[in-house]
Amino acid sequence: MAQQRASQTPAQKKAQRRWASRPMAIVSSDRPRVTLAIIAVTGLVYVIGLIPGVGPLLTNLLAFNSVYLLPQAGLIQPWRLLTVALVHGGFFHVALNMLALWFIGRNLEPLLGRARFLTLYVVGALGGSVAVALLAPGVWTVGASGAIFALFGALLVIGRHIGADIRVIGVIIAINFAWPFVAAGVQSIGSGDFAGALAAVGISWQAHLGGLATGAAVGLIYSRTRAPRQRGLQICLLVALTVVLVGLLAIPAIAYV
Known about the structure:
By secondary structure, this protein is mainly α. The protein has twelve helices and no strands.
């Protein structure tokens, strides 16, 4: 991003000045405290999960499965829609997600502000879980991938609005999204069972898709409601998006299978 700023065209600099002239987009010199806090909390949950006998219990309590959203399950546990972002399948899983969060968050959080960045992360996690519930009902998932892809989606949209070169961001998103399909294709060469290989890869492309779409929607809301007088409209649109996401859970999952 620093290299892009150094090589910006006059038109791009003008677009960025228009964005930065609005209060919500003033770049802060503060440390990305929300990003660091999310990393710290997620890391703490991972460390607690390493305690013998505690890890499986913690995962079973916080991981997401759409079964726990159905009345017939006997016990509805809606918190799993968000807490799934706190538990991971291993060291490399949590390390890669938190590394991605750090690289994106340290640039995006000062641009948006702490409250908006946290809202983006939480709503993105929700969007990822909703997509899993609709596209992979009954499947257990863990990880912050939905929230991370929401940051990607928002960065893509906001970068476009400030005149940044978003081609690199687009390539990174495409590579990350395509990776589970490529890995499954390689594994299925011998067996020919692509669906089974895709499930064996263990990467929830549904959460990636849901998070990416949700993050792009939040980024569009932020981009189009930057003026102080639009603060109320921005909040209303974010609430409406959240209501729509929750409302999608009422749609029978079989319609998407």
